[in-house]
Amino acid sequence: MAELLTAAQMRAIEQAAIASGEVTGLELMERAGRGVVEAIFEEWPELAEERGPAPAPPGYLQQEEGAWRAVVLCGPGNNGGDGFVVARLLRARGWAVEVFLYGAPDKLPPDARANYERCCEAGKVQAFAEFEPENWNWQTGEVGEVDLIVDAVFGTGLVRPVGSEIWLHEKIGVLTSGVVNARRVAIDLPSGLCADSGKPLIDTQDEIGRGKLEFELSVSFHREKVGHRISDGPAFCGKTVVKSIGLDDLPSSRAAARELASEIVRLTQPRLLDKAAESHKYTHGHALILSGGSGRTGAARLAARGALRIGAGLVTLGVPPNAQQEVACQITALMLARIDGAEGFAAVLDDTRLNALCLGPGMGIERARDLVPVALAARCATVLDADALTAFAEDPAELFAQLHEACVLTPHGGELARLFPDIAAKLNAPAMTGPAYSKVDATREAAKRAGCVVLFKGADTVIAAPDGCCSVNSAHYERSAPWLATAGSGDVLAGFITGLLARGFAPMQAAETAAWLHVECALEFGPGLIAEDLPEQLPAVFRKLGV
Ligand SMILES: NC(=O)C1=CN([C@@H]2O[C@H](COP(=O)(O)OP(=O)(O)OC[C@H]3O[C@@H](n4cnc5c(N)ncnc54)[C@H](O)[C@@H]3O)[C@@H](O)[C@H]2O)[C@@H](O)CC1
Ligand SMILES: [K+]
């Protein structure tokens, strides 16, 4: 179960370990620095090759050949401390390392200070003001190549925007634009990125401060932070590697983690499916998916196909009379029910074998307004998507009063803003202080208010239950599938959830498993995917999972 920690949770776990006496902060910092060096060589094995000796200071970087060259930028906290360890370890391997410190050495916290001093023993540490790549002359070779840039300015302790006196992205931008081989690694997080929200903290008065600071590799410790997986985090981090610093072996930190367990966000894990265990089709439930009128039935048909493929025993499309002919021509394996107004719908719902409903995809606002209350009154497991959410934009409270705990809402950003305008406003406001309000905070708050599971879509889909249970279905890094953002893909997702609800999954499990499988299907197919392809990948995905 991959956990994602906030800065405060990481601090609590670390502090518990240090306070217990089972480990010192200095030992943790040493392991962190070692982990970073290890990750650098794993990512770029060529850097581990032996090179000539480092030239004597000053002016390491004036040398054209010889040792590998690194620039390590250290900040005023323990992230800087990790940077000093990395600088020392690289120097010990014969690297030429320029180290710059933002802040005063005597203000460093004790562990970082100790490592600053150790680092100074093997070479100098310059003031950040000396770091002026904009004045370095690449053409004349005055500076020579930089092979590696290490960002150790701020980590989980970032609380405000990076000031214009640093302009880190500008400086690193200059450094990398002039140098072909400069690999960029961030310790823990790219400096300026909020560990909890994955948003860069920005000063709205400072245009330059809004630039992007993108890395190829970020090396974090113990667990990924939430910010590595949501919002801009993945784009800034490039690739995130987590290195152990031994905390899992310590009873003290394990106890601290147990205490936090109910608050910790996880990466979404699917619940494995076992359709083979039972064979009668009704044991796998009967899903009813409401369609819109003539010419608008495609979305519901996509959802229905998804529900069927994911294993619902039976799937019925509920169509208005004017669309009956159209839908009948298009479907196989699905059933058709004529559902016109609220009364007729209520009569259909008298069939107690119907155990999962889906309303919204292509439904039309009017029809959704009529039929959603009937669906919710039936107290059946229900997915509300698209038009079924927008239908309540003028009076979200009316919807909240009818929702129950067997519901799942699946808004995208626009739909979330219609139902929860205050939450969306907080989420979309410029992040000026850390920890900033995150997509996780927003989804949890929405789920609590709605009283049911909310799945907030995106490449960083966040799924939350009213009790705070929360996971992130991250389509990033090795699971990146940008081609999943295609018309109708959300309809299929709604169908997947409905199908799993029909199979008896609890709402949170259904939403999580469906979202996870949705990405797996996209990965299975690859680029060129259209929504119709998604359900058709499920058999191959299931085979791989062994179900
Ligand atoms: N012993 C420990 O606690 C360990 C900490 N580790 C490292 O320590 C980091 C966290 O250390 P810290 O909590 O000291 O935090 P940071 O090192 O991230 O930064 C905090 C310092 O920066 C200042 N600051 C924050 N935002 C600023 C801004 N925008 N402009 C100027 N100054 C700003 C703070 O006042 C504080 O002095 C982690 O990211 C990780 O890299 C690792 O070494 C593992 C062990
Ligand atoms: K950093």
From TrEMBL:
InterPro entries: Carbohydrate_kinase_pred_CS, CARKD, Nnr, Ribokinase-like, YjeF_N_dom, YjeF_N_dom_sf. Keywords: ATP-binding, Isomerase, Lyase, Metal-binding, Multifunctional enzyme, NAD, NADP, Nucleotide-binding, Potassium. AMP binds at residues 457-461, 490. Its cofactor is K(+); Mg(2+). The keyword NADP applies. Signal peptide: none annotated. Its EC number is 4.2.1.136, 5.1.99.6. K(+) binds at residues 79, 151, 191. Pfam families: Carb_kinase, YjeF_N. The keyword Metal-binding applies. It catalyses: (6R)-NADPHX = (6S)-NADPHX; (6S)-NADHX + ADP = AMP + phosphate + NADH + H(+); (6R)-NADHX = (6S)-NADHX; (6S)-NADPHX + ADP = AMP + phosphate + NADPH + H(+). Residues 264-545 form the YjeF C-terminal domain. (6S)-NADPHX binds at residues 78-82, 155-161, 188, 299, 362, 412, 491. Catalyzes the dehydration of the S-form of NAD(P)HX at the expense of ADP, which is converted to AMP. Together with NAD(P)HX epimerase, which catalyzes the epimerization of the S- and R-forms, the enzyme allows the repair of both epimers of NAD(P)HX, a damaged form of NAD(P)H that is a result of enzymatic or heat-dependent hydration. Homotetramer. HAMAP family: NADHX_dehydratase, NADHX_epimerase. In the N-terminal section; belongs to the NnrE/AIBP family. Belongs to the NnrD/CARKD family. This is Bifunctional NAD(P)H-hydrate repair enzyme. The gene is nnrE.
